[in-house]
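Progress report, Aim 2. The chain analyzed during this reporting quarter is listed below.
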Amino acid sequence: MTSVNFGYTDLQNLIGRRMPQDEVLEKLQLIGSDTGDTVPGSEDMTVEFFPNRPDMYSVEGIARAMRAFLGIEPGLRTYKVEDSDIKAVVTPEVREIRPYFMCAAVTGVEVDDTFLRSMMEMQEKLHITLGRKRTKLAIGIHDLDKVRSPFTFKAVDPDTFSFVPLTKTERMTMREILTEHEKGRAYAHLMEGMDRFPVIVDADGKVLSFPPIINGALTAVTVSTRNLFVDVTGFDAGAVEECVNIVTTALAERGGTIRRVHMEGAPKESYPNLEPREMTVSLKECGRFVGVDFAPEQAVEALGRMGIGAECEGDRLTAHIPAYRTDFLHDADVYEDVAIGYGFDRYGKGGFEVSQTFGKLLPETAFADKVRDIMVGLGYTELTTLTLSNRRDEFELSGLPEVDSVTVKNPITEDHTCLRSYLMPSLMRILRHNKHHDLPQRIFEVGFVIRDAKSSMHLCALQAASKSSFTEVKSLTESVLREMDVKYTFENCDYGTFVPGRGAFVNVDGERIGVFGEMSPKTITGYEMTHPVTMLEMDLGSITARKSGRLF
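Predicted structure tokens for the chain:
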């Protein structure tokens, strides 16, 4: 959850109503927040919101939601977007570096210290969440009166292009900013591999921003600022436009007028576009989902309390969703707002039965815990390894048969290119890193493997010792199966994993559910081991299905 900090008095002023603080906290919880670290009676308040509501990452957004919820301004909040002569251009060369640039203006605002703090906090919260720490998008808010339209988003040489960055007084090249400026060092990794850097300049070549790193000092917003220019750049057109809408509407809550910026080289001809979108759902299905048989007027009123315009004809409930609400993707999102707007405090008054229940482990989980107890009792140490592996360890070195594994599309390292199909390779890597420790080493893991896009619980046990024979691992396997109360048979296994004649399959009801044996020298040296190793691996899912009648 994301914490939002603001002043109690400022919130009341934006709501337009004086309210006891405990009532404010109660209503905020009913909207869907957590009161966080707020101390009752304190001027400073902190509330937390889920990531699906970035429109409430500012006191302005919270006040807007409160006015609707309290019935002061229910229904769809509309904003007039006036035209302007402001223009902005996206050059072709910058699209390969940072493809999307969208902007808007908000004029006639009264900036004070409270407004400044709120604006900076909103910007930072959106950077962290919607912007994924600026990797997805970055926001700039500027003093519009310090620069002149048209604005150009272009790519420049970072070693020769210079300007005065925010909080500094001397010009620095863009390359120097990455090494000498505190913000530059923090986000320098976002420029890795780029020969040219993006920059936003005005008609006179003055720098507004070096996105996503730092704004220029020239356009810093102060208490004397009256007109604001908002820019958002990034890699996701939808997210960039949503962010423009969130920021501009929040700034307009302070009394500003939103003005349109005409764009060249952007997906749309101008921004912001604050036209609401519609979603139509079944009223009956909404009632079934929420658990309340809503009358049409109840559902419309509930959505109105959430700042959503609505009308209902028969079973068709149509919601008019404001452009700053980014959380409506499915019918269930409409149902959720109906449920919240109806009031959490109204549920539970219809004579619902209340019964006490007790949680318990699933049969397969309880069985896996018993297997762990068995292995610990046999002198083995439990480990938990990564689910990620690589095809070389899984199939080439192990000698185990290749199966349909799940491949990672963009692996970070060559060691983590797929999901594991066996536990043995992961445990062998543990033994390899600990081969300088005293012998014997006995380790095991009970964990999931993934085959054919399905997960199954396996048990794997390895022993590395100066002398480790087939007889020992056969005795281990029989002990485990006996404790599981499973009837079994063995048959010869010809996998390259084992020394010929010293490997065997475990069969239960005619199905092969595991293998065990003495590893071949080729397998041992492939994993860079220097001592004999024995292994046991079996599919616990097959055993669980037989014992409980449930598939694992």
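The mean pLDDT is 93. Residues 36 and 401 are 53 Å apart (CA to CA). These observations will guide the mutagenesis work planned for the next reporting period.
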